Amino acid sequence: MGYSTQATMALIGNIAIVLLVVAAVVRADIYMHNMRGSNNRLNEQNQDRTSNNRLFDSQNNDRGGYNVGDATTTPATTAANQAPMKYYEGSILRLEWTSQHGSMNDNLNDNLVIQYMCENMQSPGYGPLTQLRDGTTTTQSTTGNAGDVNVGRHELAAYFTDCQTRERNRGLFIADQTLNGNTAEYTRQNENGDDSGLECPEERD
Questions:
Q1: How many CB atoms lie within 10 A of CB 63?
Q2: H/E stretch holding 165
Q3: Distance of CA 138 to the CA centre of its chain
Q4: What's the rounded Cα separation, in Å, for the pair 139 and 54?
Q5: Model pTM greater than 0.70?
């Protein structure tokens, strides 16, 4: 069943927007339609995505999500040939998503969190630029390939390194899970500390 709401965003200049789909927060099979959610897709020429951990832990079915747009009828192989969606300053955007399980059920406590990031591509702004990009390869983003412009990026490698080294928040609910580490990589939904792009599991959980 689909639900929608409205949000107003003031975007200055040429801003890249990344929606971290709420499915990265809960195991609920939720798909963004507007603004389009990737579900970790990039440029796959088939129904199944290549990786559910390319940029973040999407935890959705393989066939959900939207590719980055192509500027022509030929599949893009370079960033210059991609055609990402653009929005004008002051636009009123209608957010649309599909929630496959649970929503509007009186027996469930259902919380949907929309998280997004904006970055001005024309000036350094405040603090280090994350240099958001879709990339041109479905290779998983890691600290080792953070400098490769062909690999997508949602987070700075330095943020992920901090996640790997700081102690986890022991106030977070872990249910009956036995966590196999004590840094912020280890959470209720990521007890083994698996990597999903440069996303910090604790910030998602």
A1: 11
A2: helix 157-165
A3: 14
A4: 6
A5: yes
3-state secondary structure 43-65: CCCCCCCCCCCCCCCCCCCCCCC
Give CA–CA dist 33/152, Å, rounded.
20
For residues 204 and 155, is the Cβ–Cβ distance under 8 A? Answer: no
Residues 6 or more apart whose Cβ sits within 8 Å of residue 14: 86, 120, 121, 122
Show pLDDT as tens, one digit a residue, over the chain (205 residues). 444 444 434 333 333 333 433 333 334 578 889 888 899 999 999 999 999 999 999 888 888 899 999 999 988 889 999 998 888 888 898 989 888 776 677 787 777 777 777 776 554 544 556 678 899 999 999 999 998 989 999 888 998 999 999 999 999 999 999 999 999 999 999 999 999 999 999 988 7
- Structure letter (DSSP) for residue 14: S
Calpha distance 23→135 (Å, rounded): 21
Chain-centroid distance, C-alpha 166: 22
Contact 172, 58 (CB under 8 A): no
Residues contacting residue 148 through CB under 8 Å, at least 6 positions apart:
139
Cβ distance 122 to 13 under 8 Å?
A: yes
Instruction: Mention every residue, 6+ apart, whose C-beta is less than 8 A from residue 189.
Output: 27, 57, 59, 201, 204, 205
